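Design job #97: recover the sequence.
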C-alpha cells in the first residue's frame, strides 16, 4: 500500500512539473530535473519490476522530450539542450541498476533472517523433544532398577543394579550435555556476578558428590558473566577433574580478577597429563588418550562458551602430578573498554587463543 502511495505522489508531482515545463519555456530546467530525480527516488524506496521501470522511463523521456522539442522548435531554447533527455535516461539507468542490486541484496538478507528464525524455532522444538524423549525413559528405568535393588536382598543383584544405575546416570549426564550444547547459541544476558561467591557455590554443590579434598580461593571481584553458562562450564571441568582423580586427591579452584582479565584455575592431583597431551588439548586436537575422554561433549561445551566470551582455555600438567586447567576472560565494562581490552589481549603472548575441538582425554 505504501509503495502505491509513493508512486501516486511522484506521478502527481511529475505531472505538475511537466505542466510547469510547458508553461515556462526557457526556464524548464528545474522542473525537468525534479521529474528525473523523483523517478530515481521512487525506484529507490519501492520495488519495481524491470519492465515497469523501462515503461516508466520511456514515458517520462517521451513527455519531457516532446516538451523540449516543442520549445526548441519555437526558438525558446537551443537544440543542443535536448541532449539532457538521453543523458537523464542514461543516468537513471545507472542508478536503477545499482538500486536493483541493493533491492536484491536486501531481499536475500531478509530470506536469510527468516531462515535463521525458522531454524531457531526448530532448534527450540528439538531441545524440548530431546529433553522429554530422553529424560523420561531414563528416569523410569532408574526408578524400576532401584525398586528391584530394594526388593531383592541378593549381593549379586545389588552389584548388577549398581552397574545399571551407574550407566543410567552416565546416560542422563550425556543427555543433559547434549541439551545444553544445543542451547549454547541461544540468546542470553551477561550480568555482573561476584566471582568468589559463584565459585564457592559451585564447589559446595560438588563436595558431597565426590570424596576429594576440595578448596576454593578467590581474591573477589565482580565480573560480567552468565551464571548458568558459568556453572555449566565449571561443572564440565570439575567432572573431568573428578574422573581423573581418586578419593583423597585434591581439587583446588582459584579465581583472580585484575584490571584487564579475570581467571579461573582448576588444579588437581590426579593422573596428570603429558606435555604432548596438554599441548594437544590446548590446541583442541585429539590426544593419545582419546579413549578415556568419554563423549568429549563437556570440553566442546566449555570451548563454545569460552569462545563466545572472547576468552582462552589452556591445559598443563605432568604424568602422576596432576592437571591444571586455566580459563582467562577479558574484563568487559563499556564498548570502548571492550576494544581496549581486546587489543591488549591480542598483543599478550601469554594468552592462548581458543580453537574449537574435542575434549580432554
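Job complete. Output follows.
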Amino acid at each position: 500500500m505504501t509503495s502505491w502511495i509513493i508512486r501516486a505522489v511522484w506521478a502527481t508531482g511529475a505531472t505538475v512539473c511537466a505542466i510547469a515545463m510547458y508553461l515556462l519555456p526557457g526556464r524548464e530546467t528545474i522542473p525537468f530535473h525534479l521529474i528525473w530525480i523523483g523517478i530515481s527516488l521512487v525506484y529507490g524506496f519501492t520495488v519495481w519490476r524491470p519492465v515497469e521501470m523501462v515503461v516508466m522511463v520511456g514515458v517520462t523521456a517521451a513527455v519531457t522530450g516532446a516538451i523540449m522539442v516543442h520549445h526548441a522548435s519555437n526558438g525558446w531554447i537551443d537544440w543542443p539542450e535536448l541532449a539532457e533527455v538521453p543523458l537523464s535516461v542514461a543516468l537513471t539507468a545507472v542508478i536503477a541498476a545499482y538500486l536493483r542490486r541493493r533491492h536484491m541484496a536486501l531481499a536475500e538478507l531478509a530470506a536469510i533472517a527468516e531462515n535463521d528464525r525458522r531454524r531457531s524455532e526448530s532448534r527450540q522444538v528439538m531441545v524440548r523433544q530431546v529433553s522429554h524423549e530422553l529424560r523420561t525413559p531414563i528416569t523410569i528405568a532408574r526408578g524400576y532398577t532401584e525398586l528391584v535393588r530394594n526388593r531383592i536382598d541378593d549381593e549379586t543383584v545389588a552389584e548388577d543394579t549398581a552397574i545399571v544405575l551407574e550407566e543410567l546416570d552416565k546416560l542422563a549426564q550425556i543427555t543433559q550435555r547434549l541439551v545444553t550444547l544445543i542451547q549454547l547459541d541461544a540468546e542470553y544476558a551477561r550480568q555482573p556476578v561476584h566471582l568468589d561467591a559463584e565459585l564457592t557455590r559451585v564447589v559446595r554443590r560438588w563436595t558431597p558428590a565426590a570424596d576429594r579434598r576440595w578448596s576454593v580461593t578467590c581474591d573477589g571481584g565482580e565480573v560480567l558473566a552468565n551464571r548458568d553458562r558459568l556453572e555449566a562450564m565449571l561443572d564440565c571441568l570439575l567432572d573431568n577433574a573428578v574422573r581423573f582423580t581418586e578419593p583423597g586427591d585434591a581439587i583446588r579452584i582459584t579465581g583472580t580478577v585484575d584490571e584487564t582479565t579475570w581467571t579461573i584455575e582448576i588444579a588437581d592431583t590426579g593422573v596428570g597429563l603429558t606435555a604432548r597431551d596438554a599441548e594437544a588439548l590446548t590446541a583442541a586436537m585429539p590426544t593419545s588418550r582419546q579413549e578415556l575422554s568419554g563423549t568429549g561433549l563437556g570440553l566442546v561445551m566449555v570451548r563454545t562458551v569460552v569462545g563466545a566470551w572472547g576468552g582462552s582455555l589452556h591445559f598443563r600438567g605432568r604424568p602422576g602430578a596432576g592437571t591444571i586447567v586455566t580459563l582467562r576472560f577479558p574484563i568487559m565494562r563499556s564498548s570502548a573498554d571492550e576494544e581496549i581490552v581486546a587489543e591488549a589481549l591480542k598483543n599478550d603472548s601469554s594468552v592462548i587463543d581458543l580453537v574449537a575441538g574435542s575434549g580432554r582425554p
